[in-house]
Design brief:
Strand 2 and strand 3 form a beta hairpin. The strands form 2 sheets. A 6-stranded antiparallel sheet has the order 4-3-2-1-5-8, sandwiched between helices. Strands 6-7 form a two-stranded parallel sheet. Helix content is 38%, strand content 19%. It is of the alpha+beta class. It is globular and about 45 Å long. Helix 3 packs across helix 5. The protein has 7 helices and 8 strands, in the order αβαββββαβαβααβα.
Length: 181
């Protein structure tokens, strides 16, 4: 679907950030480690668009851009609105990153938040990718964040500090549950 042809130019669009909270001792050790280092106990973040396309990157993989349902109860979902122009810029950035096969960087993920390691533009980690996508779209709460230093917990903390812009999307989870049935 070509988003640019199907969106009205003068209305607000919803973008959701989906933060994963590892809740089991059977979780991958890396998820538990990342989550334990942050205030909010989240280890991963993804962008979800209005057409249910989602984008992010998992360890040792490339950026994905595909439909996701978020039926897993361990995702904390936060939403905010942006203009059509911003929405399309973020959407296009996410889609083109997947098409370019931007890869995962262990070094950036482990070193970036602590020493600001920037590395190659052809490699990223989830919270850096999501933050850069938001910055491409000019999302105000993301503009002063150093993308190479952000963790999922820090990004969630930044969103929580601006509650007038962001809100918990419990209704989204209910809508997802009703669509599945």
């Amino acid at each position: 679907m070509n988003q640019s042809r199907s969106l009205p130019a003068s209305c607000a669009h919803t973008i959701r950030l989906c933060f994963y909270e590892p809740r089991s001792e059977h979780e991958h050790w890396l998820n538990r480690l990342v989550a334990s280092m942050g205030q909010h106990y989240v280890s991963h973040v993804e962008i979800l668009f209005e057409d249910d396309m989602a984008a992010s990157i998992f360890a040792d993989d490339t950026v994905f851009f595909r439909k996701r349902s978020y039926s897993n109860p361990h995702y904390k979902i936060k939403a905010f609105t942006v203009s059509t122009a911003s929405y399309l810029q973020i959407y296009d950035y996410a889609k083109s990153s997947a098409e370019r096969n931007v890869g995962f960087s262990n070094c950036k993920m482990f070193c970036g938040p602590w020493i600001g390691y920037q590395g190659s533009q052809d490699h990223t980690f989830c919270s850096e990718f999501v933050t850069k996508a938001l910055q491409v779209g000019g999302v105000p709460f993301a503009m002063k964040i150093d993308a190479c230093r952000v963790t999922p917990s820090r990004l969630l903390d930044r969103m929580n500090s601006i509650e007038t812009v962001c809100f918990d999307s419990t209704s989204f989870k209910l809508g997802t549950a009703l669509r599945v049935q």
